[in-house]
């Protein structure tokens, strides 16, 4: 397989803060690789290190050469912080970026691709947050890149707009564009990516296909009992299943849907109040929690308090 991006032992610190603690990965041609992690996990620093926009130790090669030597026509980069000129229209902005490259796509086609045909003549300051982000995505697409690097492209975009953007990225991937994307939306990574890198505290906790990650680390199906539980709930409830309290939620493992009623009975016998019940198969969120002890879906990535043993 052709490797478009190869990184080895990438490290970066800001003073005493270790942002990247030895990350190695590779991305093959046509692959969609998603880097997932909560705020502060190191996603932006990694994207910047991989694209040569911040100093880092270790080695990075894009298309076989260091980032600074790559033909920039081959790369489309959407940084996390990107503040274009507010008084320019979406079309003017994308045209401006088109002017930086030798070979570009038709600007109106690109605007159409990101769903902005109707608002192409609106100034950036008058676009909604989601339309602004889509304009930014368009600037990264205008040079028809072989490698597209997008740092949180869907942040601020409503669910329908996010799905449209996923469809666009899937279409690009089908055409052979290699995509490296960061997100803190687990379901986005699970749906979009061929492989997912779970980033925690500047390290890759795991890197594999969503299916394999879930198969190896996701554990059993489970019943989530929402409420304000503490560790005492686990000993109070008399039920023959593994249980843990994670972020004040009681999790009962290995439960099939037909057993939910018996769990409810056990909760009532133990006098435990709860708000709601959710049954689910394991997903990437559970994998992240299992491997790092942190819930990625929660702002700031709060630590989850595991009880009743530290592993499933
Ligand atoms: N310019 C900087 N100066 C000092 N510390 C920084 C700087 N940039 C990042 N950091 C720190 O490095 C760590 C990783 O930050 P980074 O922005 O890469 O994470 P992230 O996963 O992209 O987070 P977010 O989702 O919030 O953007 C954090 O602890 C952050 O505070």
Under CATH, the homologous superfamily of the largest domain reads P-loop containing nucleotide triphosphate hydrolases
How do the strands of the widest beta sheet line up side by side? 5-6-7-3-8-9
Seen as an oligomer or otherwise, the chain set is: single chain
Q: Provide the number of structural domains.
A: 2
**Class of the largest domain, according to the CATH hierarchy?**
Alpha Beta
Supply the number of helical segments.
10
Helix share, percent? 25-40%
Average of pLDDT: 90
Largest sheet: 6 strands, mixed
Proportion of residues in β-strands: 25-35%
Pfam families: ABC_tran
Family: Belongs to the ABC transporter superfamily.
Protein name: ABC transporter ATP-binding protein
Domain ABC transporter: 5-226
Break the fold down into its secondary structure elements and pairings:
Elements: E1 3-14, E2 17-28, E3 32-36, H1 43-50, E4 57-62, E5 75-78, H2 90-98, H3 107-113, H4 129-141, E6 147-151, H5 159-174, E7 178-183, H6 186-192, E8 195-200, E9 203-208, H7 210-217, E10 222-226, H8 232-236, E11 243-246, E12 249-253, H9 260-269, E13 276-280, H10 284-292
Parallel strand pairs: 3-7, 3-8, 5-6, 6-7
Antiparallel strand pairs: 1-2, 1-4, 8-9, 10-12, 10-13, 11-12
Adenosine-5'-triphosphate binds near residues 44 and 80.
Describe the structure.
This protein has ten helices and 13 strands. The chain is of the alpha/beta class and about 300 residues long. It has two domains: about 210 residues, Rossmann fold, CATH 3.40.50.300; about 60 residues, 2-Layer Sandwich (Alpha-Beta Plaits). The protein has a six-stranded mixed beta sheet with strand order 5-6-7-3-8-9, sandwiched between helices. The longest helix is centred in the middle third of the chain and has 16 residues. The protein is globular. The C terminus is likely disordered. The structure holds adenosine-5'-triphosphate. Adenosine-5'-triphosphate binds next to β2 and α1. It comes from Haloarcula salina. InterPro entries: AAA+_ATPase, ABC_transporter-like_ATP-bd, ABC_transporter_ATP-binding, P-loop_NTPase.
């Amino acid at each position: 397989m052709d490797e478009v991006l190869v990184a080895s032992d990438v490290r970066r610190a800001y003073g005493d803060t270790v942002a990247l603690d030895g990350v190695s990965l590779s991305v093959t041609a046509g692959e969609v690789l998603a880097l997932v992690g909560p705020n502060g996990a190191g996603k932006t620093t990694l994207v910047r290190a991989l694209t040569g926009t911040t100093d880092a130790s270790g080695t990075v090669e894009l298309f076989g050469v260091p980032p600074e030597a790559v033909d920039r026509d081959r790369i489309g980069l959407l940084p996390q912080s990107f503040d274009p000129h507010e008084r320019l229209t979406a079309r003017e902005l994308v045209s401006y970026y088109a002017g930086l490259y030798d070979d570009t796509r038709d600007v109106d086609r690109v605007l159409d691709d990101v769903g902005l045909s109707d608002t192409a003549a609106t100034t950036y300051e008058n676009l909604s947050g989601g339309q602004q982000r889509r304009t930014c995505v368009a600037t990264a697409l205008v040079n028809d890149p072989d490698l597209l690097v997008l740092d949180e492209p869907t942040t601020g975009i409503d669910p329908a707009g996010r799905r449209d953007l996923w469809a666009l990225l899937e279409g690009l991937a089908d055409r052979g564009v290699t995509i490296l994307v960061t997100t803190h939306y687990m379901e986005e990574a699970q749906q979009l990516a061929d492989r997912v890198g779970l980033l925690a505290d500047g390290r890759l906790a795991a890197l594999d296909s969503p299916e394999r990650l879930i198969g190896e680390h996701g554990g059993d199906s489970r019943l989530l009992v929402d409420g304000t539980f503490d560790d005492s709930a686990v000993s109070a409830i008399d039920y023959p299943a593994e249980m843990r309290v994670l972020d004040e939620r009681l999790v009962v493992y290995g439960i099939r849907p037909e057993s939910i009623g018996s769990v409810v009975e056990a909760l009532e016998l133990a006098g435990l109040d709860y708000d709601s019940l959710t049954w689910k198969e394991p997903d990437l969120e559970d994998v992240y929690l299992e491997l790092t002890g942190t819930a990625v879906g929660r702002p700031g990535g709060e630590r989850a308090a595991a009880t009743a043993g530290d592993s499933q």
